[in-house]
Amino acid sequence: MEIHGITPNKSLDVKFPYVPEIYLNHFIRGYFDGDGNIYSRGYLVSFVGGSLDFMIALENHLKKKDMKFI
Fold this sequence. Notes:
It is built from two helices and two strands; from the N terminus they run H-E-E-H. A hairpin with a 4-residue loop joins strand 1 and strand 2. The protein is globular and about 45 Å long.
């Protein structure tokens, strides 16, 4: 599998891909659609991911959009 560029357990070390700014909102919305959650009480939104690097990069992108974190 690795000779074809498929790596096992990539969810633990996947990097945030380069996404042109014009498509970044769409990418984040798509990621949320697969690995996000909305709590009806308190208007809390969460994302789930196994890669710390990916989650930190996602957090940084959301902070640039003035999202608040708890």
